[in-house]
Amino acid sequence: MKPLPFALGLGLALAAVPALAQQAPVSAASPDGSVAVTLSIDGDGRAAYAVTRKGKPILAPSRLGFLFTDVAKIDRKLTVTGTELRDFDETWTQPWGEWSKIRNRYREFKVHLKETTALARVFTVAFRIYDDGVGFRYEFPAQAGLAKANVAEELTEFSFAQDGTAWWKPAFLWNREEYLYNKTPLSSVSNAATPITIKLADGTHVALHEAALIDYSGMAVARTEGTTLRAALTPGADGAKVQKTGAWTTPWRTLILADDAPGIYHSHLMLNLNEPNKLGDVSWFKPGKFAGVWWNMIKGEWSWARGPKHGATTENVKRYIDFAAANQIPNVLVEGWNVGWDGDWFGNGHDMDFAQPTEDFDVKALVAYGKKKGVRLIGHHETGGAATHYEKQFDKAFQFAADNGYMVVKTGYVTDAAQMEREDADGRKYREWHEGQWMVNHQLRMVQTAARYKIALDSHEPVKGTGLHRTWPNWVAREGMRGMEYNSWAGKNPPEHEANIVFTRMLEGPMDFTPGVVSLEGEKGSAILSTLAKQLALYVVIYSPVQMAADTPENYAKYPGPLKFIREVPTDWDETRVLNGEIGDFVTIARKQRGGEGWYIGAVGDEQERGSSFKLDFLTPGKRYKAEIYRDGDDADYRTAKRHSIVIESKVVTSQDAMSLRIAPGGGFAIRLVPVK
Prior knowledge:
This protein has twelve helices and 38 strands.
């Protein structure tokens, strides 16, 4: 495309500007004009961008630039050499997801910059401006002055124009992404992982994250002063946080903007900033639920290692296959099935063999048994942090999975942050962070290899989600947050946890939360801080195309009514609507099943008793629906022995109706809406 004249606020062409002279700002707005970006150069030649929404400042001028380990930084003495504008509008189809159709409409605004120094390095800041937010990235062409870029840090700032309330979890601590969310003033944030979600003083909601994290280091943010956050890249073992040669780009730095919390969730900006599907037809992957040889290990009653408590035995797995088949659950996860779990495997997975079952796990017999009953196995690949050891087995491991009819493999990287073991071709070993550039590339090699064998991945201890499941739709789920397993152990997730993660972690993409623990008991019989109805609601509220029925067959047998909902709720959707919600307090979500007429509603709250009122105007006008309601009993309370109290009832409703239901302390509700024939 031929460069267009500068998009100035006054619409005037920009004449040649002497170096270091104050330049007039350049700007552009979203298709509907509500979101605008302005880039300015100050008298020292520093570049800064600013963002407004509906005429109100969101980001004050925020600095751009880079520090390098071996050459001068990119910061001062910059001049604008040109701009480009283009409009884009398409609608694309997801092979699976929360919405089947997604519109991608934006105005792209590229600003070309050059140093006036002897190095004369050039780069572009590319903005894609949506009606609900902004994504921007740096684009560097191949050039002599930066033939190899060893990035020490980005100087990218997010200087918020006002204070507000922030929901954030800490970055760069030992337990990777698995921390509870803090709720503090924005001006009190320290080092925060992204997404970080902020409610500004004027009520505007902002979610700050990144999209399309490829061959780069994951970005956290650190507060510098006041309400200014600055990019903080994940370290690398080689010194530089990012190493690049030739032409290169950063991931997109993203800001989702909305009037309220539901508006944040409704944005498709994260997916839209990723490249389209590179795999073509992925109809071989079928969204669905899975049972699993897992919860008894989490409770400490079974073990991953061989011995008298070994969980992954042929006998145990057959019982889980029987349970899955009886309840139309198409998959069974098995953990601890392979050689390598004996002894201390945490952070030490060198004995793991991902194609060698233990002697008490007859994989051929179990695959044949499951095939007769319409049930597949899901393999588990736990690396214990030995990433290179696993990578050497990629082809062997995924070939074994394909040969045994697996459709999904769950991966794990259980070791402390900054302890991922990388081994180079020369035999030298390094310790990497889970979200450093090397591990980002490792996991991308993993998902690409798995795709060749038609294997989908459910990644635990992962690189955070940045919308890459659009590009590689066999990357179907990730963990990357404190899930249900933490409810077994001391220091359990508080009742507000799920209402927090809907508007924070879930902006990354699907999460394998492993819901459905109807016993409400963790290790040693400890009480989970939830009601029974909330466990059902999680199947609607926390999205994943592969949802676990996490409890044991024995416990499900005690609760046939709730099990009916778990059996029937889909995992793939045509449409999603957040009916109401406030971050960390409550949320109600409605989803329409893919290719069908049924709707499902889920709501969760926090530690307080609450009500949720909503209209049913999303239903098809003129149709009558049977509403099967699973709600907290009038005496339900997560703090008492009544946490199992549940009412299961039904009534007929239409699109003209509204509903109002109680959410108990620690509670929720689930509703199945089926057209009446």
